Amino acid sequence: MSTPLRKIVHVDMDAFYASVEQRDDPSLRGQPVVVAWRGARSVVCAASYEARKFGVRSAMPALRAERLCPQAVFVPPDFTRYKAVSRQVREIFARHTDLIEPLSLDEAYLDVTETRTGMPSATATAEAIRTAIREETGLTASAGVAPNKFLAKIASDWRKPDGQFVLRPRDVEAFLVPLPVGRLPGVGKVTEKKLDALGIATVGDLRGLGPERLEAMFGRWGTRLHELSLGIDHNPVQPERPTMQVSSEDTFPEDLPLDALEPHIRRLSEKTWAGYCRERTRDPHRVARTVVLKLKTADFRTLTRSLTLPVLPDNAQALADVACELRGRVDLPDSVLYRLVGVGLSGFTEVDAAAQSDLFGLDAMQLS
Fold this sequence. Notes:
The protein is an alpha+beta fold.
């Protein structure tokens, strides 16, 4: 039985954090704006299009951004404002469909196969959404319209900024064949290097390998790669993605040894526990079972240590005790220094209401 044809829109705000700053401070308009704290430990949260011309990109070290663009204006991030604007944009989405899958504050998938407005096409719906965003927030967004999620996401990047690209089913093959394989979701540098060694540079080349050879090379991921090369993606828009982890992390001003991390672990445990309690208030039937400690060394190696418990700690202090104990599972030399630590709760599962109180100490959590 064939899968019904969907109409998917991927909306992506243009240089979102930087654009909010330029909107709210007219002196920043036309300037190369970098949203980041200054300092050796900071990374770029966002860069305006003026800064991107110099090679500045999100997630790069702030010091490198400063070297690439010495005239950049650095602005510290204000996530309270960004979240407020994101809520405005989500309200605009909700006028058209209930099927909204946020990916972050600045982008989302929308299934507009059927809409509240009865607009004649997904193209018209995307145009209406972009117009409303511009008029109501003073910001611009780009949109991709396609028959599935992964194609819509690629399309939204096609005419940035403030653009829209429509990929109709009949045009999918011609669009994909010349596309570099690196444009497919999940194809990172390692996979791209393996494919390049085989002379595979485009999606058309990848398609020629066939599903059997791709599966032999990459396992189940190879099957998925073959489907993507054909433009196949059956994943639906999921409006309510369940929480997989609640966590907090922090980068230190200076690298620290393992035995100096306890105060930071306890502080982050309090933040994580508060976030977990908020999550339980929203969905009291889902509980976490696993405590996670994340560490990043001075040379950027990431380590995680976790412990799944029969009974979850019932307060922030107990969570911190477990997280501190997980340090004992780190088997690196004492001379190793750490630049980041994080504390998380994961392994969420559904439990029935009768079992919750006994197993997980809900009274002690003070969810009210």
